[in-house]
Amino acid sequence: MSEKGKNNKKKTGLGLAIWILLFLIILIVFLVKQEEIKENFDKSGATALIEKKIGKDIFDDKKADSKDSGSKDTVIELNLKKNEQAKKSEQKKIEEAQKTEKTSEKPLQSEKSIQTAASDEKKTEVNQKPAEKSVSAGKTQEKNEEKTEEQKTVQATKPPVQTAETAKTEKSLPQVAPAANTTKSKLCFVAIDSDGLVIRKEVTRTVSKDSPLLETIQSLLKGPSSTEASTGCKSYIPSESQILSASVKNGVAYLNFNEEFQFNPNGPDAANIQLMQIVYTATSFSTVKSVQFLIEGKNQQYLTEGVWIGSPLGRNRF
To answer: By CB neighbour count within 10 A (0-12 exposed, 13-18 middle, 19+ buried), where does 313 fall?
Structure first.
């Protein structure tokens, strides 16, 4: 062979030796640092890719061994527990058999006691018969006494017979009149304070429930009473004013007055106070929000002093 062929063989042998050494070094490092490599593979996600392609876990050999050993230990423990449970069940059966033997001896004594108790009951029944007779006799006496007491109570509860004299005395007694069907309503008067300003003063009066709004306005037109006047109450409504009718529709009170209502001798300021008294008194009812003034059944635009009454007036007008 030529020198070139020999050199090529030497090179190939050295290359194979070097590859074998590298493989052995890698294998040793893999075996020594298997756990660290596994953790790094898990973190990087390389194990998942390898398992998908290969279909096996490259680090599962040790796990399988540990599982096999663990399963063997659990089988041994289960067998020991079964043996213990079997021994306990045998002991329970022996104890129950002993108890049944003891209880089988007792019924003889209980039967004798039952017979003696039955004989004692018969004797007590014979002795109780005369006692029962005496008790029944006592009960009949009690029933008779109760009947007599009931008769006395019935006689006592019977109403007395009404004679002509009692009827006369009852007629002569004064009869109390039933309570009137009334309600309380608020009336608006005015007063003059220390500064000369006109302020409102509300007064409560009792009126009938049949037509409370109409009667309340009628009561207002009469003016304040003597006691109310002593507290400073005044009215600027003309004294000859009269209300002819009153009705409420959709929150508006339609109040119909006579002709004298539209003439106020104290001027337009007094006429405004006059309207304020009516509006505040009417709107004290929850069903009334504003007042439409009518004169002899007609809707007029102004009072004679030039005060507007052509539309419904509420509290915000004053």
So the answer is: buried
Supply angle C-alpha 6, 11, 17, rounded to 5.
130
Query: Whole-angstrom Cα distance, residue 228 to residue 215?
Result: 18
Mark out the alpha helices in 106-247 (DSSP H runs): 107-157, 164-172, 212-221, 226-230
Question: Residue 226, CB half-sphere, CA atoms under 13 Å: how many?
Answer: 0
Minimal CA–CA distance to 315: which of 202, 235, 204? Answer: 202
253 DSSP β-pair partners:
248, 291
CB 153 within 8 A of CB 173: no
Q: 206 Cβ partners below 8 Å, 6+ apart?
A: 182, 183, 184
Residue 168: CA count within 13 A, CB half-sphere: 3
What pLDDT digit, counting tens, does each position of 161-196 carry? 455 454 444 444 444 444 468 999 999 999 999 898
Render pLDDT for 239-262 as a digit per residue (tens, 0 to 9). Answer: 999 999 999 999 999 999 999 999
DSSP-assigned letters across all residues of 31-66: HHTHHHHHHHHHHHTHHHHHHHHH-S-TT-HHHHHH
Buried b (16+ CB within 10 A) or exposed e, 24-57: eeeeeeeeeeeeebeeebeeeeebeeeeeeeeee
DSSP sequence for 137-152: HHHHHHHHHHHHHHHH
Element housing 205 (H / E) = strand 198-208
Q: How far apart are CA 189 and CA 236, in angstroms?
A: 8
Its pTM stands at 0.45
Length of the chain: 318
Query: What's the rounded Cα separation, in Å, for the pair 282 and 255?
Result: 9
The single residue listed with the structure tokens 């003063």 is 201
